[in-house]
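For this section, I looked closely at a protein sequence along with its fold in token form, which I now present.
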Amino acid sequence: MQAMWSIHDVSPSTATWADAMVGRLTLSGVSRVTILIIPAGEWPPDAVDLLRGWESAGHILALHGWDHQARRPASLYHRLHSLVLSRDAAEHLSRGKAEMIARIERGRAWFGTNGLVEPDFYVPPAWAAGAVTSRDLGGAGFRRVETLTGITETSSGRTRLLPLVGFEADNLWRSIALRVSNAANTVLARLTGRPVRIAVHPNDDAKMLAGDLDRWIHRRCRPVLPG
């Protein structure tokens, strides 16, 4: 089985945790991962140095919204999305297209300002793109965007459907739902031969599915990168 690892929600407050997870994955043979960066906030020099080090080591740095914070849900869809999946993280769903594109462009420019390569890979917070289309993202300089269903090439609009596994469970309901979803997507990956996306969020290694995450880390999968 092929595995496409990503580390989510990397900000000044989670950078140290993320560095430990990168090290843990490297020791298990996963030498290149996608690291999702939230630019907003005060980034101290040592945290920015971590990003530069990951970039130099061949990891992919992707933009993950601007601040990963949604406003109060206004639509029924956003309210349901918050209850089932995103809570207060679906930044796109609480803002219009023009405002969100401005935040995305600001986020991409932040990388260059800090001596990093401006990313060409975008992952909306909670995988929810809202009104922003792949064409919009292509115009903002991104070649690929990842959503719940897979990875889309912005130039063509074609989506590669990819199974998804996650571990962000902090209550019994989420742990049950994720275990069912993870099992189904693992079977789908085996049947189709497609890579399985493995998404790791801050402190998943201390939550209810920590054991499941540990088994994936030590599983014999061939690591691959998006693209």
Q: What stands out?
A: The mean pLDDT is 93. Residues 43 and 172 are 34 Å apart (CA to CA). Residues 172-192 form the longest helix (21 residues).
